[in-house]
Design a protein that fits this description.
By secondary structure, this protein is mainly β. The chain has one domain (about 5-85). The chain has 1 helix and 9 strands; from the N terminus they run H-E-E-E-E-E-E-E-E-E. The strands form 3 sheets. A 3-stranded parallel sheet has the order 1-4-7, covered by helices on one side. A 3-stranded parallel sheet has the order 2-5-8, with no helix packed on it. It has a 3-stranded parallel sheet with strand order 3-6-9, with no helix packed on it. The protein is globular.
Length: about 90
């Protein structure tokens, strides 16, 4: 089992993501709106061949450390026809 502090940290980071894809291939995200996510709206981690389009992301101007789309260890990612206001 994980020490309680590490477990709490993992829960904190998982709660602060609206939508996450991990280790996925040939992902298409289209036509969604995400509002007021506390930290990360959309995250792609270790993904390949990702297409995001017709997406709207918005959060208040005073939100701390807000990532609209967070890319980590991912390749062949395209984002088009989207409105990111983070």
């Amino acid at each position: 089992t994980m020490p309680w502090k590490l477990k709490d940290l993992c829960v904190f980071f998982l709660r602060h993501q609206a939508l996450r894809f991990y280790g996925s291939t040939n992902v298409t995200v289209t036509g969604i709106t995400i509002r007021n996510s506390p930290q990360c709206h959309l995250k792609f981690d270790s993904c390949m061949t990702v297409s995001v389009y017709n997406m709207t992301v918005s959060s208040p101007g005073n939100s701390p450390n807000t990532d609209g789309i967070h890319l980590q260890n991912s390749v062949d990612v395209v984002v088009h026809h989207s409105n990111l206001a983070c």
